[in-house]
Amino acid sequence: MTSGVGQEMAHIAKVDEGDPSEDSERWAFGEEGPWRLRLESIGWLNGLDAVREEHRRELPLLTQARLWPPLGRFVEAARAVGGALLIWRVREGRHGGETSRQGLSLRLRRAFEGLGSAYIKLAQIISSGRGLFPEELVDEFKHCLDQVPPDSFEDVRRTVEEEIGGPLDSVFEFFDPKCLAAASIAQVHAARLKTGEDVVVKVQRANVDRLVRSDIAAMAWVAPKLVGRIPIAALANPPALVELFAETVLEELDFRLEAENMLDIARVLKLDGQTGLVVPRPHPELVTRRILVMERLSGFSYDDIEGMEEAGIETQEVLRAMLIGFLEGAMIYGVFHGDLHGGNLFVMEDGRVALLDYGMTGRLSQKQRSAFLKMMMSGAVSNMRGQLEAFRDLGALDPDADLDELMTLLKLDQAPRDPTKMSGEEIAGEIQEILKALMGEGARLPKPLMLYAKDMLFFDGAVNQLAPELDMLAEFTRIYGYFAQNHAETIVSQIGFDPSATEVDLSIAKATLGLEEGEDSITHRELQERRLIVQQKLEEQALHVPSLGLGGKRDSE
Fold it and tell me: What is residue 25's predicted lDDT score, i.e. its pLDDT?
């Protein structure tokens, strides 16, 4: 197995002893599965360390500055996006307001879908950025999660037959030509093996490997030219974002790595007794670079709140199981599901959550895991300096960043202010100062931190949908208590901090939220109302995110 996932996870095959037939005793699989996994006989696990290392070596070559972009693909992308902008300007752009924003979001989504995998993946990342990107764009790009136009069945059949080395019916008794879902890199089909098991088959899109690499090269050529030229460049370094995007998507192109991720995360969940989460079993033989056969699970759609309530499922407990499993994987073991969204999970009839799609999986080295622990624990006790040290050790800041100066520039050494009581001009000024300070210290977003932030945005939306009256401060304290009770020894050994002997400190959070003395709770609904106030103040200053080409007349209102 892959190194750099933490000592507990390294080389599972070497430390996982016992009866290999009882895989539900070692992994978070369902009790009864269509097959059993014996690690020593799984051929597709061999050599995956080398595959991951090859991707790491390829990354700087793929994203290096070059004199010319891949012209054919570059022209195709420019034509598609430029055409979408032109049609929007003629039809919806002249109306301004919501009509303009919705029209542009729709046309960009269609253009991205037409361009294929890399752009669809970019749309998926944007769709998880509620609060960072315009609402209309987020809502429209959510269609790219699992409603992307699929490849033809002829292409699917060709890929599967090439990978299994024979005709479809040599392995499958039934293979549904209509896909269950289609996304950026692959689509999934229901099938039944000739041995009788009902399965799901994930099939890589035709030519996706070549197209993704070509698109990354084109993005790498454009990125340096965007620095300082468009508003979004103020938020990050575009070349660094392209590198981050490339690092994220490259590993998704080999389904053997995804199957290994499934085993690793299933093992983490089992080690900590997280019975509320289930991972589908990958097939012991039918996994290759371009196809992944796994057991088929079923349940309620993530947003089917009425169905879950009728079945007696507590939606708050569903959320807690997902959040604890996610945090435990990241903080304690250094491996976590990095692409949580409604299309990648469903709730089984017994209330357990089935997690799907492990192409984007966060993996932290020993150093990163210790830094991540420090980041979380420092935040829990309002230690701002400790958090900055953790960000530096995670690679989010330059190793020689002046943290004392950054504390001053970010005003972390001052009492926090309630943004709802500030003017729009004051809020905008604070944002500009923060961005300037971070960029001055070489701020960037390492892959594990990006995946963590992306998943936390999902959880924020999930709470809003499934448990809007949840007391956020009480829930934070409860989670802190869980880690203090169950993982204090590990945390002490990693960072020298004992959560069981230290009380959580929410003073800074309360001050930022404008809570008066004696007020100790705020629901997610109330938190959303506060965010809306801040957003409206920023819009009045024409500095809210929709000004990035989506505002129409709103930008000047």
Answer: 84
Tokens of 136: 């209309």
Other C-beta atoms lying within 10 Å of the C-beta of residue 228: 8
Beta strands 186-193 and 181-182 are antiparallel
For 130-148, write each residue's pLDDT tens digit.
Answer: 555 667 888 888 877 766 7
- Give residue-wise pLDDT tens across range 429-488: 887 788 778 877 878 888 888 889 889 988 988 898 889 999 999 999 999 999 999 999
> Checking DSSP bridges between strand 361-363 and strand 335-337, what pairing results, if any?
antiparallel
CB of 490 closer than 8 Å to CB of 366 = no
- Residue 278 to residue 266: CA distance in whole angstroms: 7
Other beta carbons within 10 Å of 515? 17
Instruction: Locate all alpha helices (DSSP H) within 272-419, ordered by sequence.
Output: 305-310, 315-328, 366-380, 384-394, 403-409
- Which helix (H) or strand (E) is 479 found in, with range? helix 472-495
Under the banding of pLDDT at 50, 70 and 90, the label for residue 228 is low
The mean predicted confidence, pLDDT, of the chain is 84
Residue owning tokens 């050529």: 221
Q: How far is CA 175 from the centre of its chain?
A: 30
What stretches of 205-342 adopt beta strand conformation (E)?
A: 277-278, 282-287, 291-295, 300-301, 335-337
Quick check: 126 and 139 in contact, CB under 8 A?
no
| Model pLDDT for residues 150-195, shown as the tens digit of each residue | 899 999 999 999 999 999 999 999 999 999 988 889 999 999 999 9
Residues 308/300, Cβ–Cβ less than 8 Å: yes
Tokens of 248: 């994220």
Domain boundaries, the chain: 366-466+502-556
Summarize pLDDT for 35-81 with one digit per residue, the tens.
Answer: 989 888 899 999 999 999 999 999 998 888 777 877 777 788 888 88
Global pTM reads 0.84
Query: How far apart, in whole angstroms, are the C-alpha atoms of residue 236 and residue 241?
Result: 7
Token match 């949840």: residue?
Answer: 470
User: Taking a C-beta distance cutoff of 8 angstroms, is the pair 385, 23 a contact?
Assistant: no
* The two structure tokens encoding residue 499: 């959560």
The secondary element (H helix, E strand) that includes residue 454 is: helix 447-466
CA dist 69 → 81, 214, 215, 225, 520 (Å): 16, 9, 9, 12, 55
Say if residues 4 and 363 touch (Cβ distance below 8 Å): yes
Environment class of residue 195 by beta-carbon count within 10 Å: exposed (0-12), middle (13-18) or buried (19+)?
exposed
Question: Within 13 A of 90's CA, how many CA atoms are on the CB side?
Answer: 6
Q: Are 335 and 5 in contact (CB under 8 A)?
A: yes
In order of 65, 214, 223, 237, 548, the CA distances from 218 in angstroms are: 10, 6, 9, 16, 21
pLDDT digits (tens, 9 = 90+) for 73-120: 778 888 888 888 888 888 887 777 777 888 888 998 888 888 877 788
- Structure token pair of residue 407: 């504390």
Single-letter code of the amino acid located at 120: I
